[in-house]
Amino acid sequence: MKILILDDLKSRHDVFDNLFKDHDVFHAFTVSDFVSKLKDDVFDLICLDHNLGETETWIDGWNNKREFNGVDAAVKICELEDHALPKKVMIHSMNPVGARSMLNLLYARGISVDWQPFGKINEDHY
After folding, report:
1. pLDDT along the chain (126 residues), means of 10
2. Whether the model pTM is above 0.70
3. For the structural domain made of 1-68, what CATH number should be given?
4. Cβ-based neighbours of 87, under 8 Å, separated by 6 or more
5. 5-25: burial string, b at 16+ Cβ within 10 Å, e else
6. Measuring CA to CA, which of 25, 74, 87, 98 is 20 to 30 A from 39?
């Protein structure tokens, strides 16, 4: 199985490496890196975090600093052509508001999606 992980914390990537040691795991720490990997490959499973720290920011139309987050990644997944959609997306964010936003977007696109906060994950959820 090909798996793509989006999270800003190296320690979480290490946990996923261990959890999915028998699979092909790809890592993204920023939304830009995530989008680049989405363009290059099709994944069976994508694991998303919401809060990605201040790894990437931009200034919005009101001159406010905005951080890219998991919702931006979910939007990019939703924009994929049908043949490039993942079989499943697992949201592992501990942020319930952000996770719900991602769930709603992905569900509306018809993507199999579930939310399991990081502290409660295990292989059975994937």
Report:
1. 96 94 96 94 96 76 81 96 96 95 97 89 58
2. yes
3. 3.40.50
4. 44, 45, 112
5. bbbbeeebbeebeebbeeeeb
6. 98
Partner residues linked to 2 by β-bridges:
24
Instruction: Tell me which H or E stretch contains 58.
Output: strand 57-59
Residue given tokens 């994937």 in the structure block: 126
What CA–CA distance (Å, rounded) separates 42 from 52? 23
**What letter represents residue 23's amino acid?**
H
Q: Where are the domains of the chain?
A: 1-68
- Amino acid letter, 118: F
Helix (H, G, I), strand (E, B) or coil at 35: helix
Q: Rounded CA gap, 76 and 11, in Å?
A: 25
